[in-house]
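Bumping my old thread because nobody answered last time. Still need a sequence for this structure:
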């Protein structure tokens, strides 16, 4: 790795494109290295931090080279953080301070790399990331509002999900602003449609973290979820459209599962009772769709089981629908664990003879 790093500083980099090639090889070695190579990764960190710090001294005439180099260096940091996990903690403060400087740059590609490194650090530190959250929330919000650079927005959505799992209830202090921005994103026609399914899913992550507090968002969130649930495509759609529909429905199902479980944890599940019929309508739509993939089927079955467990006999009229019964049987035929859970809960309401 040290020899490869020397290659990244050769004077003939532009001619041979050696810089990019060298960093790609470094990343591959870090990701694929055995456990006995972890010490070498640790030895790289200080040198990489120094090199990243030096890039901020580059002149305005070298902006293109600066952004390229910063993106490559941050990519190596991301690989090292993923590889080291919690062992990155002694270096976390220094790396995060450099990342804050990175986000002051006006380059979408550098911001993408920076957000991916931030995501890796959140995963590595877990609850210990809480002490660093405050200065990065502004960065995350700006990323969520970047509708011109959809990939930046998409990665920022993923970072929100990471933060909910890291902070858990500690995310409550940020949820009002984040949910507001996410709802604006969903409603904004300028934002690329491929970013919207992850936004629906992350609303479920937020609900799991803030639990009962999510009640205050239901009146705004649920109508947008149901509007997306109503999306239909022609029967002759191509694979790309079918894949998008599966992704969208998976995200909506994840959102409902997260919202219900989060509210149930704080004994506020009753606040979802007015939405019960529409949720079952969506499950029926999924059940009748022959093009649904296995992940969608699994999550629909999990949601069905949760609904029956949380609302009990209020679900009885809905679970008698033949399409829902057939979906459970399909899951049983495929030996899906979620199907056995759904059948157990449904059978408590209508008996087991089906």
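Sorry it took so long. Here it is:
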């Amino acid at each position: 790795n040290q020899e490869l790093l020397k290659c990244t500083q050769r004077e003939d980099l532009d001619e041979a494109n050696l810089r990019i090639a060298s960093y790609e090889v470094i990343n591959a070695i870090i990701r694929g290295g055995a456990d006995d190579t972890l010490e070498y990764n640790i030895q790289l960190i200080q040198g990489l931090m120094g090199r990243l710090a030096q890039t901020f001294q580059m002149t305005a005439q070298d902006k293109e080279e600066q952004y390229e180099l910063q993106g490559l260096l941050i990519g190596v940091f991301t690989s090292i953080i993923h590889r080291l996990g919690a062992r990155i903690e002694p270096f976390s403060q220094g790396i995060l301070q450099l990342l804050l400087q990175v986000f002051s740059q006006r380059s979408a590609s550098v911001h993408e790399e920076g957000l991916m490194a931030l995501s890796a650090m959140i995963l590595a530190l877990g609850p210990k990331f809480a002490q660093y959250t405050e200065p990065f929330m502004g960065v995350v919000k700006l990323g969520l509002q970047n509708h011109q650079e959809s990939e930046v927005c998409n990665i920022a959505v993923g970072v929100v999900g990471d933060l909910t799992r890291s902070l858990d209830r500690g995310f409550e202090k940020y949820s009002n602003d984040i949910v507001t921005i996410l709802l604006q994103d969903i409603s904004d026609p300028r934002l690329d449609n491929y970013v919207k399914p992850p936004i629906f899913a992350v609303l479920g992550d937020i609900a799991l973290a803030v639990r009962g507090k999510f009640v205050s968002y239901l009146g705004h969130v649920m109508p947008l979820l149901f509007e997306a649930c109503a999306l239909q495509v022609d029967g002759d759609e191509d694979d790309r459209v079918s894949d998008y529909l599966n992704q969208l429905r998976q995200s909506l199902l994840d959102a409902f599962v997260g919202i219900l479980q989060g509210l149930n944890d704080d004994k506020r599940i009753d606040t979802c009772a007015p939405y019960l019929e529409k949720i079952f309508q969506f499950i029926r739509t999924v059940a009748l769709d022959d093009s649904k993939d296995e992940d969608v089927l699994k999550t629909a079955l999990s949601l069905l089981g949760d609904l029956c467990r949380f609302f009990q006999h209020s679900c009885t009229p809905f679970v008698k629908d033949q399409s829902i019964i057939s979906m459970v049987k399909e899951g049983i035929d495929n030996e899906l664990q979620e199907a056995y859970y759904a059948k157990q809960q449904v059978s408590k309401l209508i008996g087991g003879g089906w």
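The chain has a mean pLDDT of 92. Let me know if any region looks off to you.
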